[in-house]
Write a structure and sequence with these properties.
The protein starts with a strand and ends in a 5-residue tail after the last helix. By secondary structure, the protein is of the alpha/beta class. It is built from eight helices and ten strands. Strands 3-10-9 form a three-stranded parallel sheet.
Length: 239
């Protein structure tokens, strides 16, 4: 059975996306594990590290789509500027809008500014994947603004606390007609499986994989967990 993930008219067979993580740096082993064992087809890249020769982006194979993210942007204008910069560097028109003006350790996204940036970039032809604190009102606004997918956080970035916002993510899954991609806080393959079981379209993770003592094995575990959760959802798993 064909079951592709479609974002902005582009099809993917994998539903695991490698995030750029806290450090925004990649190692050859992390990239190889994600590509060969998790079978990822998309890897997030922090725009503010594009000129950093040590960011590890060159380890990403040419056939893997790079998803620039605007980590570091504090408002919509900064995110739009970063998206234009990424596009000028040949990274295409996919963009993960990530706007954080939270000075606390929680690093929570600014939802209103994210809606603003999404509307502006979508109007310019970008395929926009906004990162948000899960909120149904914001989800409805993003759908109207032209988002191609919505990326709600499961729990604060790098916290490894899992699906702390599960109920709010489930509202997005049930009410928004866009792929819902869980991002941030996924600590274990079992949590990725749970997200997929409730109807999420994909999972983005970094810390859980990058911190494993055996990266290939953990990457393979994420692949199988995501596949299992997706099949359970498609089989009309009883809630």
């Amino acid at each position: 059975m064909s079951d592709e993930l479609v974002i902005g008219g582009v099809s993917f067979t994998s539903r695991f996306i490698l995030g750029s993580g806290k450090t925004s740096r990649y190692t050859p082993e992390l990239i190889r594990s994600a590509v060969e064992y998790a079978e990822t087809e998309m890897i997030s890249v922090a725009v503010d590290t594009l000129d950093d020769i040590d960011n590890g982006i060159n380890f990403i194979p040419d056939n893997i789509r790079k998803l620039p993210n605007t980590l570091g942007a504090k408002n919509a204008q900064e995110a739009v500027t970063m998206a234009h910069f990424a596009h000028s560097r040949g990274l295409g028109n996919f963009i993960k809008v990530e706007i954080i003006d939270d000075s606390t350790t929680y690093l929570l996204p600014n939802n209103p500014e994210t809606v603003n940036a999404t509307e502006r970039l979508a109007a310019e032809g970008f395929i926009v994947l906004p990162y948000i604190y899960p909120d149904l009102k914001t989800g409805i606004q993003l759908e109207a603004a032209g988002a191609a997918a919505i990326m709600p956080l499961a729990s604060p970035s790098g916290s490894n606390k899992g699906l702390a916002t599960r109920d709010f993510i489930e509202q997005l899954v049930n009410e928004i007609n866009l792929p819902i991609i869980v991002d941030a806080g996924i600590a274990r393959p079992s949590q990725a499986c749970e997200a997929m079981e409730m109807g999420c379209a994909a999972v983005m993770a970094n810390t859980a994989l990058a911190s494993a003592s055996n990266l290939p094995m953990m990457a393979r575990a994420f692949k199988h967990a995501i596949q299992a959760g997706r099949e359970a959802y498609l089989s009309k798993l009883s809630k």
